[in-house]
Write a structure and sequence with these properties.
Elements: E1 15-16, E2 24-31, E3 34-41, E4 50-51, E5 54-63, E6 65-70, E7 73-78, E8 82-85, E9 92-94, E10 101-110, E11 115-116
Antiparallel strand pairs: 1-2, 2-3, 3-10, 4-11, 5-8, 5-10, 6-7, 6-9
Length: 123
């Protein structure tokens, strides 16, 4: 019986993730409809507007502040918090702290992982 092997991806082995101005993403493991990686946002930075097509995004803040802005408002998260961003929700991320923010991301779904748009009313 062939079992899948356990796989590790070190920091050095991560691939550059899909670009959005204002943040740096890295890709760790992608399996079928599951994507994982990290995002880093510098202090005071705000990313460009974007969405994640048909992907649910779950993120865990490991350090700094991670603020998710949508047309409806802002969700403020800090180290130890989880955040869920549903599919197709146009948003941008910011870091309102004076420390670099880092989050661990897991996405499940279909379509492009990142779609950059002009603003919260873009479609």
């Amino acid at each position: 019986m062939n079992q899948p092997e356990v796989r590790k991806v070190s920091v050095a082995e991560r691939k550059r993730g899909q670009p959005t101005p204002g943040m740096t993403r890295s890709e760790a493991i992608v399996v079928d409809d599951l994507w994982s990686g990290t995002a880093i946002t510098q202090p005071g930075a705000v990313s460009g507007w974007h969405h994640h097509a048909g992907h649910d995004t779950i993120l865990y803040v490991t350090r700094g502040a991670f603020d998710v802005e949508t047309a409806e408002g802002v969700v403020h998260a800090s180290a130890g918090d989880f955040v869920h961003v549903p599919p197709h929700v146009i948003h941008r991320e910011g870091n309102s702290s004076d420390a670099t923010a880092e989050v661990v991301l897991v996405r499940r779904g279909s379509g492009p992982v990142v779609v950059n748009v002009d603003g919260p009313d873009a479609g």
